Structure formats: structure tokens, C-alpha cells
Amino acid sequence: MKQLLALKVNDHPGVLHRITGLFLRRGFNIATITVGACEEPGVSRMTILLEVADERVKDQVRKQLAKQVDVLEVEDLTERDAVTRELCLVRVEAPLKMRSDLQSLIQPFRAQLIDVGFETVVVEVTGSPAKIDALLDLLRPFGVLEIVRTGLAALPRERQTGNGRAALKEGRGVEV
Q: What is the CATH number of domain 2-80?
């Protein structure tokens, strides 16, 4: 069972270590973790995807995180409607004669070539983990040499009301 958490934490040395240590001590597996600056100075946003055993453990994780001094906010996005994205860079074998085939393959994924060498290219793709996995499966026959993935970044979607939907229709919001 997966649990997706969004945290706001104080941006101090050692915060990431203390949070990951909390999971280590309790034997929780972190599938992905991303950390970066957010809209508030001195505050960072963490997105953590965990492998948990059951609902009781999910609740325990939230409570343990909320007790941490440097954790300002904990939001469980597991059951919420959220925008999630991941970035992936892939170095692929691509001799000149294969590049047009490769370009045709990545285009439906809205991926792009961001570096071109004599024998290899680097492909950049963003999207859901499932979308990235699907592209990687199609790229493997070309010869995948290196892969780097960022892990999930997530924000909850705005809770839509009748007025929210009207705002989208009027162009005041963006529907993804």
C-alpha cells in the first residue's frame, strides 16, 4: 500500500536526515522523496511516497511526522485529488540512422531530446510514474544506458465547487 505525503518543513541543516531517520527507525520504506524551496522563505516542501502495511501504519506515520519540531505541516495526499509529476532523464544509444525512429517514439509522450552526442542522446520526460515507465519500456530496445528520476512532486488540487468550475470555464484557472 502506498502513502503520498506533502510536508512543509523548516529549511535547516539536518531536517531531511531527521525525517528519513524517523522512517528508518520504524522500518518504513521510502519509495521516493523530493525536497525543494517553496513559496515561503526559510521553508521547504517535501513530497514523500512511502510503502506502508495498512491504514493503522498510515495514521501512525502522519502522527509521528506532525510531532517533529521542524515539520510545519503534514498533508496526506493519498486519497486526495492531486497534481503529481516526476522528471526523468534517459541516456539512450542512438546512432544517426535510428534518431528519426527515436524522435517519432518519444513525441506522443511529449518528451524531448535535450542533449545529442555522436552515438547517444538524452531524453527528458515529465509526467506520472506510469507514463515514464511506459516510455522507458519502449526505449529499452534502443539501448538504455543511464536513467535518473527525480521522484514525485505533488500539490493537492484546488477543491472544486460550482464557482471553481465557472472560474475554469472563464479562463481564470487551468485544468490539467
A: 3.30.70.260
Q: Are 122 and 114 in contact (CB under 8 A)?
A: yes
* pLDDT over 90 at 35, yes or no: yes
Contact 89, 15 (CB under 8 A): no
Q: In the prediction, which pLDDT does 128 show?
A: 92
Contacts of residue 11, defined as CB under 8 A and 6 or more positions apart, other chains included, come to 37, 42, 43, 44
23, with CB counted inside 10 A (0-12, 13-18, 19+), is middle
**CATH fold label, 83-154:** Alpha-Beta Plaits (3.30.70)
Span 136-176, pLDDT tens digits: 999 999 999 999 999 999 999 987 655 544 444 444 443 33
Amino acid type, 67: K
Q: What is the pTM of this model?
A: 0.78
List the 43-51 sheet strands across, edge first.
29-37, 43-51, 2-10, 71-76
